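Supplementary Note 2. Why include the ligand at all?

Several targets in our set were suspected to adopt different conformations when bound, so apo predictions alone were not considered sufficient. For every target with a known small-molecule partner we therefore ran a joint prediction. The input for flavin-adenine dinucleotide is given below.
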Amino acid sequence: MTALLPRLGDTSHIRGPIEAEKSLKELVWFRVGGAAELLFQPADEADLQAFLPLVPADVPITVIGLGSNLLIRDGGLPGVVIRLSVRGFGGVAEEGETRLRVGAGVPDKILAAKALDAGLSGFAFYHGIPGGIGGALHMNAGAHGTDTSERVVEVRGVNRKGEIVTLTREAMGYSYRHSSAPGDVIFTSALLEGIPEDREAIRANMEAVSEHREKSQPVRSRTGGSTFKNPNGLSAWKLIDQAGCRGLRIGDAQVSEMHCNFLINVDAASGHDVELLGETVRARVFKASGVKLEWEIKRLGLFEAGREVEPFLGQV
Ligand SMILES: Cc1cc2nc3c(=O)[nH]c(=O)nc-3n(C[C@H](O)[C@H](O)[C@H](O)COP(=O)(O)OP(=O)(O)OC[C@H]3O[C@@H](n4cnc5c(N)ncnc54)[C@H](O)[C@@H]3O)c2cc1C
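The joint prediction is reproduced in token form.
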């Protein structure tokens, strides 16, 4: 058992499961990576509030959502990993004519469906994103020319002291696939604003989103979505293609033939295979074009000893 659990003190009042050395592989889309020293899945927001002050200040806390944008390294995550379940954080409620109060555990696709029920447009892009609302709020998830920042009125969360915090859209500090909200706040819900529209038009938009995805992205593969951010005015996939990386393979990690800004775990890749492939792509793109691609995927945790991967393979 990890030495961390006793350091939390009395946890008898905590309702959600706290598990030591819990493998995270099954919780992320890539299906790679090591274990969490402790994994806590709060029963609800009050449970999260009760738990957070128990964690000693020197212990790192990492929150994960549905794991569709994460590369977990093989050495695992030290400290506490927190995952918000659909059961505890999965509510969607209409507020007035145009707003939805959405729990951070709600899958994006469910939000798109609920917005359709409510006759609100502006949410169809979520129909094609396999993450949850907590991740969407953090990543400023978006597609088809729109993103999460355009829908946010305010975000509610819990800070490390266990206090409830409310952040306006401005305080979320949104830019392309990024939020600069305070790093210790775990988002628990958000108030989102839509635009009233005819349901048939909304449904048609959602169908167009699905159709586009099926044709252009390896949506049924073990992947983390777009690997690198699009550099200003450029497409990451074009740079990767021009650098000759389409289909490039290291171990069981491969640059998708279908969309070369996607890396896929073909079968039994390790976190090391995927990250090494990503850094190889960055090094080759830099050599071919002079552009330094920036990871969009969040890489979390420790390398296994002796299997470290240097940015740009150490060539930049
Ligand atoms: C096939 C595929 C297609 C994709 N297409 C798109 C796309 O079109 N557009 C797009 O933007 N993304 C896309 N993605 C990436 C991904 O789905 C999004 O970034 C998504 O918003 C991540 O949500 P998640 O719940 O999976 O978060 P995770 O991947 O689990 O976490 C992502 C980040 O959010 C943080 N986070 C998660 N929950 C919380 C919370 N409650 N409070 C604070 N921080 C939190 C985590 O710490 C982490 O830094 C795609 C991924 C895949 C696999």
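The domain at 4-86 is CATH 3.30.43.10 (Uridine Diphospho-n-acetylenolpyruvylglucosamine Reductase; domain 2). The longest strand covers residues 186-193. Comparable summaries for the other entries are listed in the accompanying table.
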